Amino acid sequence: MDSKPKRRGAMENGDTGEDLVVATMIGNGEDLGHLVRRSFEVGRPEALVHQLKHVVKKKEVEIEELCKTHYEEFILAVDELRGVLVDADELKSNLSSDNFKLQEVGSALLEKLEELLESFSIKKNVTEAIKMSKICVEVLELCVKCNTYLSAGQFFLALKTVDLIETNYLQNIPVNATKIMIRKNIPIIKAHIEKKVTADFNEWLACIRSSAKDIGQTAIGHAASVRQRDEEMLERQRKAEELNISGLGDTVYSLDVEELDEDSVLKFDLTPLYRAYHIHSCLGVQEQFCEYYYKNRLLQLNSDLQLSSSTPFVESYQTYLAQIAGYFIVEDRVLRTSGGLLSADQVETMWETTVTKLASVLEEQFSHMDSATHLLLVKDYIALLGATLTQYGYEVGSILEALDNSRDKYHELLLEECRQQIANVISNDSYKQMVITKDSDYDNNVLAFHLQTSDVMPAFPYIAPFSSMVPDCCRIVRSFIKGSVDYLSFGVNSIFYDAARKYLDKLLIDVLNEVVLTTVQSEGIAVSQAMQIAANITFLERACDFFLQHAAQLCGIPVRSVERPKASLTAKAVLKTSRDAAYVALLKLVNSKLDEFLALTENINWTSEEISENNSEYMNEVVFYLDSVFSTALQILPLDALYKVGCGALEHISNSIVAAFLTDSVKRFNANAVMVINHDLQVLENFADERFDSTGLSEIYKEGSFRSCLIEARQLINLLSSNQPENFANLVIREKSYNALDHKKVASIIEKFKDSSDGIFGSLSTRNTKTSSRKKSMDMLKKRLKDFS
């Protein structure tokens, strides 16, 4: 209570602030260590010592004052302390007495204590012996378990037991002989386990190799099912789109989703591999086992890639390719599930080796194949192989490129097969119009190839304007398109329509067109056959649009994209040219047949003395033949073709008439012969006019009738029959009436013209007068033509 006045008094006595701080810290029991260090650090310890001395002095003063204040109480305390000393001496005496008594009693207890300690020592030894015995029993029990596991083939448990003995018990086994025995057998047990596991693994290697073919076939079969389902879905979608475009129905889209786990489809056991890998990992030889696995699988792969020389490739390719597929499906599963047994780089290395070898094998085998069907089957299976392995992440582009490299070879074989088929169809054709008796035949032979000439269903029996060659060839072409698209599909290029179109053009131009053209231009072909072939070419040309649309559909190209004019096939124009060539060949045959009927040098009496008012018999045959040709052509040929054939035949007759006058076998002719030919020509002209009108050509061709094709012969006969033939020398009259005649030919012909002598009948006197006048005119024309030339 007096501390505050004292502090104030101290401050009044001249205490500095630093002295007060030190005093306060000492009073509070605080540590002065940091002040001491600080004073030595700043180099002023004297000041601190001075402060401490000053504090001591202050405390001494306080003590003196305190003693003075409590003097009486201090005296009383000293007295009490003396009393305490007396009590202490008494207590010390009692303690001595008690100690003696205690030692007397403790001697007996000490003996008991020694006995107790000895018992404790015995107990400790027994406990230690029991503990050691337990360790030995546990080790022996573990050894028995290990043997049991080894006998049962439970190598992992046996190995874990050995590791447990080695880790937790081996160093603690108290019996040295047992320890040595166990330590000696541990490596033997591990070696035994490794040997047994390796044997089981080797057996699995042989088993998985024999199962690879079945695995591959199952996976490829699944890929084929998926592809077929996708193709059916695309076909339904295309049909729906076509119906929607044509306005016949509403487009209905459906999405079929089928989730299928590949691992559930392909069941093969990798347990021996996992166990062997795990056991070797536990044995600490994981890398060694990985290398062993990789080398053995690589040896198996190299063996699988070797072709059997005893079996043709076309018979063994499925087994060969399925084995490869199964191999890499297994490797993919091992890579994904084994946890480091196989690296991605190792799988990639094996795959690259396989791709290189497989591409080489395919190129060699394809080069030896002579059947497009075999090549397509192999290609299709390879495409399925590629689709299968693509699902497992393998790059199959190089394999598909090998297929693309052989597509020319495939199409060459396919073209040759189609050439033989088309040649057989044409050689076996009846060259008669096809008779269709029912709807199904009409659908299969006409509508199927867009050969109909009308959208109205005809009445049956229906006589088609083409022969059976046309639908048969169309079926061959359609089959070719299917085979071509099948080969080109599922290759490197997803868009292969241009390639399919190119090969289609090649078939139509180099095969179909060539065979048809060769046939129509061959010797021994009849007019009816040539005419039917010409008509058939027209319908083959029409079918080109169907062929292109069919190819587009199979290639997945919208049909509307190939309906543009610029998108048509080149073969269409080539067939059109061949059709014209067929018309030329047909015309040659008709003209050749006409020459047989005409034979004017034999059928005409060029110097007859009799006047005939009737046409010749040969002309009746010519007209009858032309009528049959026109009737047949009208049924099967378009009108423009009929017009060309008709004009060509009549023009040929006209040229033949003129040529007959010029031939060397006709030395001279008279007016009676001209009159006969005039009658014949009139019959022919009447036939030409009637046919030109009845066929409807007169409505199409306003100028250039059939009669105009006989103009040269007509003008020649008119000139030879004219009373004033010298008018031919007049340019105006010649341009008007004889513009088709060549003056050189006329000069040669009139040189042969010799009028007959006068008759014996007086009634012909008038005619003789006319004849004489015409003879003078003819002589004048001869003279003028000689001067002109």
What's the helical proportion of residues?
A: over 70%
Share of β-strand residues? under 5%
Shape estimate: elongated
Instruction: Kindly name the structural category.
Output: mainly alpha
Write down the overall mean pLDDT: 83
Major beta sheet summary: 2 strands, antiparallel
Number of helices, counting only DSSP H or I runs of 4 residues or more: 29
Q: How do the strands of the widest beta sheet line up side by side?
A: 1-2
List segments where confidence is low: pLDDT < 50 over at least 5 consecutive residues: 1-14, 245-260, 757-767
**Total beta-strand segments:** 2
Distance between the termini: 175 Å
Q: Roughly how many Å is the radius of gyration?
A: 63 Å
Domain Exocyst complex subunit EXOC6/Sec15 C-terminal: 400-752
Domain Exocyst complex component EXOC6/Sec15 N-terminal: 51-220
Pfam families: EXOC6_Sec15_N, Sec15_C
Family: Belongs to the SEC15 family.
Layout of helices and strands:
Blueprint: H1 3-12, H2 17-27, H3 33-42, H4 45-69, H5 71-152, H6 155-169, H7 176-246, H8 262-265, H9 271-282, H10 286-304, H11 313-337, H12 344-368, H13 372-390, H14 397-405, H15 407-427, E1 435-436, H16 439-445, E2 462-463, H17 469-488, H18 497-520, H19 527-555, H20 570-598, H21 600-603, H22 617-636, H23 639-662, H24 671-694, H25 697-700, H26 711-721, H27 731-737, H28 743-752, H29 765-788
Helix pairs in contact: 2-4, 3-4, 5-6, 6-7, 6-9, 7-9, 7-11, 7-13, 9-10, 11-12, 11-13, 12-14, 13-14, 13-15, 15-17, 15-18, 17-18, 17-19, 18-19, 18-20, 19-20, 19-22, 20-22, 20-23, 22-23, 22-24, 23-26, 24-26, 28-29
